[in-house]
Amino acid sequence: MRSKGYQRTLKNLRYINKYFLRYKWHLLLGIIFVVGSNYFKVLIPRAVRESIDLVVEALGVHHFMGDSRAAENWGDAIGTSLMYYGLLVFAAAIITGIFMFFMRQTIIVMSRLIEYDMRDEIFKHYTKLDQAFLRKNNTGDFMSRISEDVSKVRMYLGPGLLYTINLISLFVLVIYTMFQVNAKMTLYTLLPLPLLSISIYYISSIINRKSYIIQKQLSRLTSIAQEVYSGIRVVKSYVQESSLGDYFESESELFKQKSLNLARVNAYFFPLMILMIGISTIITIYIGGTFAIRGEVSAGNIAEFVIYVNMLTWPVTAIGWIASIVQQAEASQERINEFLSYTPEIKSESEAELHGKIAGAVSFQNVSFTYPDSGIEALKNVSFTVEPGTSLAIIGRTASGKTTIADLIFRLFDPDEGKVLLDGMDARSIPLSHLRAGMAYVPQDVFLFSDSVEANIKFGDSTLQLEDIHRFAKLAVVHDDIMKLPKGYDTEIGERGVSLSGGQKQRISLARAFIQQPALLVLDDCLSAVDAVTESKIIEQLRTVMAGKSTIFITHRLNAMPLFDKIIVLHEGRIVESGSHDELLKIKGLYSEIFEQQSLEQQPAVSSGSG
Ligand SMILES: Nc1ncnc2c1ncn2[C@@H]1O[C@H](COP(=O)(O)OP(=O)(O)OP(=O)(O)O)[C@@H](O)[C@H]1O
Ligand SMILES: [Mg+2]
Question: What is the CATH number of the domain that holds 39?
Fold first, then answer.
């Protein structure tokens, strides 16, 4: 990926220009400070030249004076003048330093501000993306775009830009000053610089290539370690510790070899640079010497030129580095742009504000849906209606399309054919935020954040009181479980704290949904890890919570079915039966078949559930 980057143009980085515009004052001031610091820096060699010339001339005169009193006074006068030059150099150095402080305070600060804005923009965009995109791109990919790629772009915005402005202004100022002194000598002494920059560019591109390989190997190592860590239970139970250990060791060995390889190249880098700088200093002194002998320049000029050449060599060595920063930033920005330019297919067709809340009526009209990536036709001509204030149970064997129905209601996908109506309106015509705000969804694979139990239940709604949280946790039959945790509702859960059982997680998610008091509640098989007795208790409570509102309950288990107003039976994406529990039993179809099967299975173990 990076190797291709070497031939890239910089069109992707143009995206950042809007940020430069936003922070134009930072940038402008930064440029002024950089130029200012270089202006004062260039004064120093001039002071050195004047003082050396002064000494050389004065010593000549002093030589003729002999040991007289005048000679002594003359010596004092030279001392005073030298002191003056010393102070001048000191003052120029201090002013340069102050300007350097401010140039970092403007340009590096600007890069941090832009970095912040970019992360924000990427994250906001991320939360808008639809399932189709999110499924195609994995977590690691998103993580690297928001962290690594943004950092690479920031390197371009901060140090990259700073060194470029510095390089250009220093070159202009120094070369201008050198030409003022002697044009021919300037040309001769600058001759080795291009050679220096080319060789340094060559070595630094080798270093970059090797670092990239090492980086990739490192992320391989991290992901192996991470995977083994999260799957440690499986690893141990299949007694795979030693074989995975060997695998890790061999990958680690590869990493070591590649790192040693880089260390070798790096070891060449500094000596080479010092050598080059030394050579150009010698050349300067030699050429300066020949010019001085011919009387074209003074001794002070030689000293001055040595300082100029040294001043230029360091920024020249940075050219290779800047070039690689820019290339990496370009490649990273391309990945960021690709992400930002993706427009979600699921979006609100009208952004018109709707007044009032959703009443909770759902109706599917001849809905068919095929998953675009797998080509599986998950729903075939499905029609049903849920009136506000009623409850519907959706049952069916695994992969029959139950979760797909829930996803379509929440517009995680749009149907290929037919319509999903909410309160009699096409779901597509309702603004997404309005649609989702009125409903709550507890998905099949419940998810809790690494935070306290309380924060997980109220989930962002800071207006909720503790009493409410307790009341709804009781309704979800999880309050007693929470009180038994070490710090009750303040217990940290997830990666940062205690682990909960599957059933506890499900009921906490349920409390989170209850507390929103939605007009429509969709529960996707979210009591599967709760025992049958608790499940029935929760469903009883559900009627209190959802009085006058609609509920859609997706499940495999039929124990609680008599409590629902209506049941639909899905089979391979089609509704094969529908009606109340008693009606369905009478039909003696798929429903009664599953019911009988489950009654038989459950009889011996009716009260020993697995909460
Ligand atoms: N994101 C997806 N991309 C592609 N195919 C999918 C996707 N989600 C589900 N499917 C397919 O669609 C079909 C219906 O899946 P769905 O998740 O709706 O079943 P389900 O009834 O909820 O099953 P379960 O009871 O096991 O949860 C399955 O064949 C499944 O493989
Ligand atoms: Mg499902």
Answer: 1.20.1560.10
